[in-house]
């Protein structure tokens, strides 16, 4: 006997229908939310990781650029094509304060291992001429993590001011090697007036430079540090 499985209710035909229950829909939405949050966290972590790697690369590049600039300058420290006598050109010693002269025997301030002072005959006229870039000075200011360059008073040849040039330098150490192989730090250089180790016997300068990223790593919250070491042979020795 034929039986009609459909029934009428208020003029509508309602048949057998399959679908999701409310519980199933809630579970599906919850699972989708968890997966979405996991994917968002993964995307954010990858974004921060990429930003961190980019920051590390930029920090290393900046350190290399600073070291390259130092290398160009330091390699000219003993440049003396006219063979001017008297130790006029080469590594010099001073206390690094404003007004002090490069061409002097004053000791560098105690503990200041981040200082480098020298002269070179940049314009090849055989005369120390501060207005022609013959005098160069670098000084690390630890309170601001800045590597400074000296502004020279053309009238006296002394330091008229220190100018901040390279930021985010967290360490700057200079050591000197004499021709006999002896090493001395910038703060521990022997007085050339009472020691056999004169400025003219300096054969090489070793520089250790550490730079820090501008901002902390977004993933770890830590700064990124890059250290570069370089030992530079000077062009020639003094002429006396």
Structure description:
This protein has one domain (50-233). By secondary structure, the protein is α+β, with helices and mostly antiparallel strands. The strands form three sheets. A five-stranded antiparallel beta sheet has the order 3-4-5-6-7, covered by helices on one side. It has a four-stranded antiparallel beta sheet with strand order 9-8-10-11, with helices on one face. The chain has a two-stranded antiparallel sheet with strand order 1-2. The radius of gyration is 34 Å and the shape is elongated. A hairpin with a 4-residue loop joins strand 8 and strand 9. Mean pLDDT is 78; it is low at 103-107. It has one helix at residues 22-74, and strands at 7-9, 12-14, 90-91, 115-119, 135-141, 146-152, 159-166, 169-178, 183-185, 202-212, 225-233. It has one helix and eleven strands; from the N terminus they run ββαβββββββββ.
